[in-house]
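Researcher: Good morning. I'm working through a list of sequences from a screen, and I'd like to move beyond sequence-only analysis. For each chain I'm collecting a predicted structure so we can compare shapes side by side. This is the next one on the list. No need for commentary yet; just the structure.
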Amino acid sequence: MSDVRSMANRMAAVSGPASDATDALATLHSLCEALRRASLDVVWRQWGALGGMTAVSQRATSLVDPEALVLFSLRLVPSEPRLAGVVGDWVALNSDVLSVQRMRNLSGDYPPEVRAGLADLARVALQEGKDHRWKSMLAGRSDGSAPEFVRRGAKRRAVRVEVGEPAALVLRLRLAFGVGIKADVLALLLGRADDEWTEVSAVARSTGYTVAAVRKAIDDLAEAQFIERGSDARAEYRASRASWRKLLGGAEARPWCGWHERFVFGAAFFDWASEVKGRPLTAYVLQSQGRTLIERHHAAFRYQHGWLQSDDASQEKDHQLSSAIHSLAVWMQQHV
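Model: Good morning. Structure tokens for this chain:
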């Protein structure tokens, strides 16, 4: 928590209006560094919960979204090369519990470099994991460059996932019910706070499946009485944590925190920051373009109150980007 406070103090120090390009670049650099540290903290802790050999002392406690974790890790590999070994070794041992269809669905929200890395990872899943579902994803790399995930020596940097790990509930349910939409929908509903009712459209946004596919799966789960259907005209659903606690070994269901939405924003922010650093930059341009990026990825902030927009119009105009990135970075470290 002391790291979070110190980061907050640093962010407060740079959140004032920049007077020239130097100040704007300094602000952007500080924002990138704050979000990068928070992102790496989340990613390493999540891999630790799934069986990756990491140096972190704490594992993730919220539910891990496995496909989102893989994709965001691929985006972070250039600045954190150690992730390549962990991701590659983990996929070689655990590709069977990943959803190829969902990986394909979600990958469209990430930059082309991530999809190229995913093609390299598919090669690992096919050749080492003997998982032929991944063959259809081999065509993503077209530049002829060497794969990111070649094996280096006999030392493994990951093990088979321990499904009793509370944060690995998605993978546990996939082993029980098969890799598919029903297991993912059930995990998400179990991860909702206080058995809250959830609409089909919200489930579709968080899981990356189509509304039609989610509606069919969720209706089947309700008919089987695995989840409850509300009487409201909006057709809301929920899964009772109390009913599932005994089956899950008495463990309390961990929260679903919408990591995909936050990871997508992180990838977009890092790419945008790299792009604008090469152009003339002022405080106005920084904040204006930053606000546009936030609006485009509003789900990363407003879901579970990762950041609440200020009612102060002047504060919103001059400091919205700094406030949003600071709040998101702190939120991520507090909720992982």
